Amino acid sequence: MDIPFNITKVSKEEYPVILAVWEASVRATHDFLKPGEIERLKPLILNQYLAMVTLACIRNEGDKIEGFVGVAEDKVEMLFVHPAAMGMGIGRALMEYAIHCLGVKKVDVNEDNGQAVAFYKYLGFEVAHRSPLDGEGNPYPILHLQYRN
Question: Which of 10, 70, 112, 133 lies most in the core, judged by the most C-beta atoms within 10 Å?
């Protein structure tokens, strides 16, 4: 495995930066969300969800975080890349790190996020099953993907 980026840990003090990357990425990729969903989720991400995962990130030459992955057990719980850095291989590098260094075998993805679904399938994930509602009971169908090596 040859990851062309330096992947580092994220400190709790960097959570506001991580949240900003998350928000920019979600605004660029999650056009299916209802108005107000992002604002509703921001405090949950910042104050609860980030502390529940192992976070790793890729930074640019200026030490600014460009993308991050959050892993719990053998599952990617979050993967977000700033829109200005999309298409540079950051998401793929973070996923390869998660698979090969953190033992990831699963990821959930919004069915309506076609670009992300295609990305995970390209990396070797396949749909294991589908849920009509997201983890909060909202009508955003989730695809549960399994890594097939």
Answer: 70
